[in-house]
Amino acid sequence: MVSTAVVFGARGFIGRQLTAALASAGWRCAGVDRYGRATGGFGEVEGPYYDGDDWSSVALGRFLRRCGHAVVVNAVGASWSVDPAVVRRDNVLWPARLAEACEAAGTSASIVHIGSSHEYGGTVPGGSACERSALAPVTAYGRSKVEGASHLVRGAFRMGRPLTLVRAFNVIGPGHGSQGIWATAVGLYRAAVETAAPRVVAEVPLPGTARDLIDVRDVAALVRLAVERPGSAVTVYNAASGTVTSIGQLFDAFAEHTGIPYRFTRNAVGLRRGPTWQRADIARARTQLGWTRRFTLDDSIAAALALDEEARDGAARPVLS
């Protein structure tokens, strides 16, 4: 029985949570960060970073062989970077290199890859994207995620190993990154709470934009179930709430939680345009994995705004079902 998982991107927003979820479920995790530092007792990856000639597929293959028969989880990815070179490196070149390494090592029991809702593009208002929906990305970021996943799909077919694609919609919750509307809202409201500011002012040119928001801890729980129940070939799951929340509604929720009102300004300078409506069909994860969403929007806000270390540690504890 496979009991080891190698998680690349283990210190990232999603990777940190899913590594904790797997470890709590009894998995031995080799968690690898972008500097080649690894937990699990298998040593480190040669080279400080997967750029240029470092972290070649040969070096990665050697590391994977040391890990032995294991599930490989790719939680590496650039999110909405303004630097196209970073997007291509993290979302396209890295998955291609990882696929080569898995083939060279020959030790991967299965592969799990964290994708993005932006691979679907937008959905018709009132509709939902299911796993069978056509991929029609409308942004360079979305196209990079499609291209990167395709390398792992081809590698899995060549190896005859199962591949699971988990397409995460807009991920929110504790330990957020630095980009996107969720990170912006958390940063503004955390600063307002700490300084007792009377109001939050946010630059939001399109407050009616609607997204499907899902807590990172719920995503981690879904990934853990997917790791434990690989399909026979390529399986896709949406990680989402199945509901939509507009940017205006998101800020309404922050205001209600904190008691601090907000005001939008609509400066469109530097606007990154994406779909104006996205919602996922989550029936497959529910019926095939028994997964259900546990955390509400208010739960996510409370965890993200927790100011003391004890509260943050509690918010970070994984949920296993």
UniProtKB/TrEMBL annotation:
InterPro entries recorded: Epimerase_deHydtase, NAD(P)-bd_dom_sf
Ranges for domain NAD-dependent epimerase/dehydratase: 6-239
Phylogenetic placement of the source organism: Bacteria, Bacillati, Actinomycetota, Actinomycetes, Kitasatosporales
Identification of the protein by name: NAD(P)-dependent oxidoreductase
Similarity section: Belongs to the NAD(P)-dependent epimerase/dehydratase family.
A Pfam family hit: Epimerase
Signal peptide: none
UniProt source species: Streptomyces halstedii
